[in-house]
Specification:
The protein is α/β, with parallel strands linked by helices and about 210 residues long. Helices cover about 30% and strands about 30% of the residues. β2 and β3 form a beta hairpin. The longest helix is centred in the first third of the chain and has 19 residues. The structure holds 1-O-pyrophosphono-5-O-phosphono-alpha-D-ribofuranose (PRP) and uracil (URA).
Length: about 210
């Protein structure tokens, strides 16, 4: 894969440990859900190094000091349905007051083409840093279209975060949207003939919600 400036692959030992358990087909739905959330929280810390801070005056027991806080209401979370829902609590652990929008995308099983079926966003989303989240980045079609949909609705600062990604998906998103940082916990080998990531973890939505 070409080295792209807007792609960040985490190589954190704790993430590697958790991803190893996540991939295991014998991991229960409960544990799978918890791991997705925990990995998301670690990734959120890492990907927010450039978050906007505003100065505030704080009175300690000893004196008044200028400190810096994340600007109120400056972050929104947008999961790509369904599987992105599993990551929302992980971001909320870091930004408990972040409003949540939803984008519904499904991949046609034969063509692998994404289709948008739902979009509901917080009213003032164009002024926020938007965390677009989906555990799986395979062909990149869903993420590319979801980012385009957010831009069309006025979003200017978007960060995309995925847990497992295939190289072609990362490349597609990063090249189509060079202004969007793409954060990936783990870069996998390739896609199989059905568009599933290898070694991957299977269907993230089904494993999160027990639908298969
Ligand atoms: C999965 C996954 C991504 C998409 C990735 O969703 O959660 O949204 O596939 O594939 P792509 O990069 O090739 O577009 P899916 O369409 O299976 O829907 P679901 O989350 O409702 O199961
Ligand atoms: N969506 C998934 O849930 N898993 C994959 O491997 C690819 C797309």
């Amino acid at each position: 894969m070409e080295k792209l400036k807007n792609v960040f692959v985490f190589d954190h030992p704790l993430i590697r440990h958790k991803v190893a358990i996540l991939r295991d087909k014998n991991t229960s739905m409960k544990e799978f859900r918890e791991l997705i959330e925990e990995i998301t929280t670690i990734m959120t810390y890492e990907s927010m190094r450039d978050v906007e801070l505003v100065p505030v005056q704080v009175e300690t027991p000893l004196e008044v000091t200028t400190q810096y806080k994340v600007a109120d209401d400056s972050v929104a979370i947008v999961p790509i349905l369904r599987a992105g829902l599993g990551m929302v609590n992980g971001v909320h652990k870091v930004f408990p007051t972040a409003k949540v929008g939803h984008i519904g995308m499904y991949r046609d099983e034969d063509t692998l083409e994404p289709h948008e079926y739902y979009c509901k966003l917080p009213e003032d989303i164009e002024h926020k840093t938007v965390f677009l989240i989906d555990p799986m980045l395979a062909t990149g079609g869903s993420a590319c279209d979801a980012i385009a949909a957010l831009k069309q609705r006025g979003c200017k600062k978007i960060k995309f975060m995925a847990i497992i990604a295939a190289p072609q998906g990362v490349e597609k998103v990063a090249l189509a949207h060079p202004d969007v940082p793409v954060y990936v916990s783990t870069l996998d080998r390739c896609l199989n003939e059905n568009g599933y990531i290898l070694p991957g973890l299977g269907d993230a939505g089904d494993r999160l919600f027990g639908t298969k």
